[in-house]
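Why do we bother with a discrete structure alphabet at all? Because it lets us treat a fold like text: something you can write down, compare, and reason about line by line. To make this less abstract, here is a complete entry for Adenylate kinase isoenzyme 1. Read it the way you would read a sentence in a foreign language you are learning: slowly, and without expecting to understand everything at once.
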Amino acid sequence: MGCSVSCSNSASCSRQIVHSDDDKIKDAKIIFVVGGPGSGKGTQCEKVVAKYGYTHLSSGDLLRAEVASGSERGKTLQAIMQKGELVPLDTVLDMIKDAMIAKADVSKGFLIDGYPREVKQGEEFEKKIGAPCLLLYIDAKGETMVKRLMKRGETSGRADDNEETIKKRLDLYYKATEPVIAFYSSRGIVRKVRLVPLVIGYCHCLNPQEVGGTLIGENGLVVMAGAE
Ligand SMILES: Nc1nc2c(ncn2[C@@H]2O[C@H](COP(=O)(O)OP(=O)(O)OP(=O)(O)O)[C@@H](O)[C@H]2O)c(=O)[nH]1
Ligand SMILES: O=c1ccn([C@@H]2O[C@H](COP(=O)(O)OP(=O)(O)O)[C@@H](O)[C@H]2O)c(=O)[nH]1
């Protein structure tokens, strides 16, 4: 819902000021977080939130919340997600936009986790919302991702954490999402995240500097705590 403020004296005020919901997020700091299924996107986002106070919005979590609501739309989404396929682009974009607007007044910036899944999604996001200042690319080996998701599947209750769907999600990641990284690399905003086995939170390494509120090392490499 937009909020409109106008001058009641039309004789002395010829200009109408309109503050729409879109205005609330038009200058928002946006960081995309991209990586394969089970690469650790959610885990790393939690660390960034704890350190920098950004708002974490996981596209997958937003979709799962809709499924859990039991709505008709949720039922359609569930069928697609169970197969490891992508839901229609507009659906997830609208959800992200609504969630951003809801947090706009209190947010320092947004970590958009698991998005974009394909170049077209990124282009549409930029048309409807704005451009990202950074893309964090969480790199992990395929076999590591599969191993983690199979383990997570023992307790997650996620319908897509099973061997067959994990394989489909991984295939789709290589086919549709990896081109996203090349697309944003040409703009110079991709930071590859290398996970290192550390027990302390962040590795303050490689002369880190703050870029867009995120710890960035030399050569654009971000090093965060994690392990195979
Ligand atoms: N061993 C190990 N496990 C990790 C690491 N990071 C995440 N995990 C585990 O791997 C699984 C996947 O991590 P998530 O952070 O949920 O990965 P994601 O990329 O957000 O995955 P999706 O939710 O499927 O998008 C979870 O069970 C985590 O606990 C890590 O650095 N080392
Ligand atoms: O922009 C998005 C984000 C997620 N999904 C769907 O949600 C599922 C789970 O996504 P999530 O990011 O939670 O997990 P990941 O696939 O990265 O392991 C995917 O397989 C897709 O079916 C989608 O279609 N579009």
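What the structure line is telling us, in plain words: The two ends are 45 Å apart (CA to CA). The CA atoms of residues 27 and 149 lie 36 Å apart.
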